[in-house]
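A brief tutorial aside. Many learners find it easier to grasp structure tokens once they have seen a single protein encoded end to end. The record that follows does exactly this for N-acetyltransferase YhdJ. Read the sequence first, then the structure, and try to relate runs of similar tokens to stretches of the chain.
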Amino acid sequence: MLYHKEIQSEKELLEVYPIMKQLRPHLDEAAFLTLTDKARKSEHYKLFALYNDDVPVALAGFLPRVSLSQGIHVWVADLVTCEKHRSKGYGKRLLTAVEEWSREHGCGSVALSSGTGRRDAHRFYEEKMNYKKASYLYRKPLA
């Protein structure tokens, strides 16, 4: 049975960490716990997990935001399906849950960025989820 829920406890975070590690390999468990806690407190970060028969198979981390360019919206910061569970519709199901949460909380859109080399992800967003490429994301390290 498929269902999703918000991950809240440290125990739940540790349970889903191996999946997040596939998307964010630079994070060890301690950094994952610390950054998740800070993001929740400062930016109202939410982490949803999709479960198949009580086994986590996909994660979506997102933040409600307000900007002059996008109004009230949700920014998807993290979206990953476990490598051994890809191409089963889990990412679509979880991103749809994020969209539903966004509507219920008065958001007018959902936005995300995807690394330039992630062609399969781009195809998924554009062809399966009907997202439109809206901009380029630029980054400058400050250290």
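Self-check: The chain has one domain: 2-128. If you spotted this yourself, you are ready for the next section.
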